[in-house]
Design a protein that fits this description.
About 55% of the residues lie in helices and about 5% in strands. The protein is mainly α. The protein has a five-stranded mixed beta sheet with strand order 4-3-5-7-6. Strands 1-2 form a two-stranded antiparallel ribbon. This is Glycosyltransferase RgtA/B/C/D-like domain-containing protein.
């Protein structure tokens, strides 16, 4: 059964990993889908920054064993390293490696479910199959980024922690500590796995910290601390300077129930939040508040107060699209089942890293790119499975079939986005317009055979008298770039204030809105390649938030007036 569910997960992931992007512009050509693909390879070759080299070290080693080592001068050489990392042989290995780890994560999810509920194997098979059929997890698994690998290492560590907490012997404990390292370093530094170690604390230690607090009191304190952090790490709140309001956290602490020796810890929490909000340390700033300015104009901190409603909306949207509406609706029932499971409290505590990441993405995260939510999908698939089998009519065969048919159709819809990529559809247009001078935005990825070579568009070309723009014949806009002017997962749904848009400037956002509305005097829409979906989750997302696949989007081609 585990082998079977592994293959169900692997086949669509591996097929897309080895076909998407290949041969678009001629036999043997390769076009990367996600511009972050293989960055971990370049980091390993010391030709990139801000990425973990762990996965790159593995893919480069496998590629070397297969007879394709990096050039001798690749280390530290950006152009050579990039050419090698994005070459066909390495990308085939890197994507296949990602697909394999994605399928292996499905097996880990089954094993974790077995550990929690050994007498109800149907929960494990349901959780595994839900993850195997997750279109979001599947499509991330056929891209050579670190997100799927990070998710695999996190759940491998969580499983090892569960085994260690169940069997307090030296070998399981040592294995758990060893597997914690890739979980932390697979993507930059991800400290949340350390929270799983709380499951090993004796009850006396917990009691000395919590005192006589009930579970409800403790949940209230944690919730109050998170809400306080959500405000403290918000640039809108910081601009007002209302830091004394952070002291309202103290009202949530049941002071008479906590030990006197731990009172200073609770007293320090608002002060620590204030201190982090004041610091300009890059690591803390980028993971809490975000900067007001960035290399694309505004930084992630520019969203201001809109950050609160954006984050609160993004999490349920991601879970609905990631698992399918029926499974997502059952997650709350799964949470209830988890709370009721008093026999396995320590095992559930091993999942604290995922709970902490959920709270972080819900209230604090300045950057909310969808793939950053990927570690939540296996755990929520497990909760959805728990929720499904708590239904009194769960054994109904028609209901069970429909429950799995829905995510299967959603998986097909997800995959069709990649196999019918609009950039691939546009090849014929380029062939028909050979000799035309073309401007293009990022992510439009024009074919290399087009002559004269397309020129990267700068928004300034179309501003003012647009004299530079009128030197060309056509402008190709990619949704993945102009979406910065629209409602999407980084901007949220309140985008009337151009000052609060992320990764753009008010002038650029206004320009793209003008172009998309057909009001630019020098541009006329002549061709529109559109991503089409049939499942309601993706259709509704496109209507209100744009195409869900942020590296596969609409292409709009405009004729430039002379």
């Amino acid at each position: 059964m585990l082998l079977g569910i592994f293959l169900v997960a692997l086949l669509p992931r591996l097929y897309s990993a080895q076909t998407v992007g290949w041969h678009w512009y001629g036999q043997g050509s390769f076009t990367p889908i996600n511009f972050d693909e293989a960055n971990t390879c370049r980091m390993w070759l010391k030709a990139a920054r801000e990425y973990s080299p762990l996965v790159g070290a593995q893919t480069v080693s496998i590629n070397t064993i297969l007879g394709h080592p990096p050039p001798a001068n690749a280390e530290g050489n950006y152009n050579v390293a990039k050419a090698y990392c994005l070459s066909g042989p390495h990308m085939l290995v890197a994507r296949s490696f990602s697909a394999f780890l994605g399928a292996a994560t499905v097996v880990l999810t089954c094993l974790i479910a077995f550990t929690l509920s050994p007498h109800t194997p149907r929960v494990a098979w349901t959780a595994g199959l839900l993850l195997a059929l997750s279109g979001f997890h599947a499509t991330q698994s056929h891209m050579a980024t670190v997100d799927v690998a990070m998710t695999f290492y996190i759940y491998l560590f969580i499983l090892s922690a569960m085994l260690a907490v169940s069997n307090r012997k030296a070998l399981p404990m040592m294995l758990c500590l060893l597997l914690m390292l890739p979980a932390i370093f697979a993507k930059k530094v991800w400290p949340f796995p350390l929270l799983a170690l709380l499951a090993f604390l004796p009850a006396s230690t917990w009691r000395s910290f919590l005192g006589n607090m009930s579970n409800k009191h403790f949940a209230g304190v944690v919730g109050a601390a998170l809400i306080m952090a959500a405000f403290a790490f918000n640039t809108g709140f910081q601009s007002l300077g209302w830091y004394p309001l952070l002291g309202l956290f103290y009202l949530a602490v049941p002071w008479r129930k906590i030990p006197l020796c731990t009172a200073p810890l609770y007293l320090a929490i608002p002060w620590v939040a204030w201190g982090i909000a004041q610091t300009d340390i890059a690591f803390l700033k980028s993971f809490t508040t975000g900067y007001l300015n960035g290399k694309f104009g505004s930084g992630f901190g520019a969203i201001g107060w809109n950050k609160l409603d954006r984050n609160l909306l993004n999490l349920p949207v991601l879970l609905i699209v990631g698992l399918g509406l029926p499974a997502a609706l059952l997650i709350p029932r799964g949470v209830v089942q988890m709370i009721r499971d008093q026999r396995n409290v320590r095992l559930w505590l091993c999942l604290l890293p995922i709970l902490a990441w959920t709270a972080y993405m819900l209230l604090i995260a300045p950057k909310t790119t969808y793939r950053h939510y990927l570690p939540l999908i296996p755990a929520t698939a497990l909760l959805a499975a728990q929720g499904y089998w708590s239904l009194k009519w769960a054994h109904n065969k028609l209901l069970l079939a429909a429950f799995f048919l829905w995510p299967a159709l959603l998986l097909i819809d997800f995959e069709l986005d990649f196999h019918q990529d609009t950039r691939r559809q546009a090849v014929h247009w380029y062939q028909q317009h050979a000799g035309a001078k073309v401007f293009h935005t990022f992510y439009a990825s024009p074919p290399p055979f087009h002559r004269p070579s397309p020129v990267l568009f700068k928004e300034e070309y179309a501003m003012g008298d647009a004299s530079v723009l009128r030197q060309g014949d056509y402008l190709v806009l990619s949704e993945n770039w102009y979406e910065t002017a629209q409602a999407q997962e980084l901007n949220g749904f309140r985008v009337t204030n151009l000052e609060r848009l992320v990764k753009t400037t008010p002038e650029r956002a206004a320009l793209y809105r003008q172009i998309l509305a057909g009001r630019h005097p020098d541009l006329t829409l002549v061709q529109d390649y559109t991503v089409s979906n049939f499942m309601p989750e993706l259709v509704l997302h496109k209507v209100y938030y744009g195409t869900f696949q942020k590296f596969v989007g609409d292409l709009k081609i405009y004729r430039i007036s002379k």
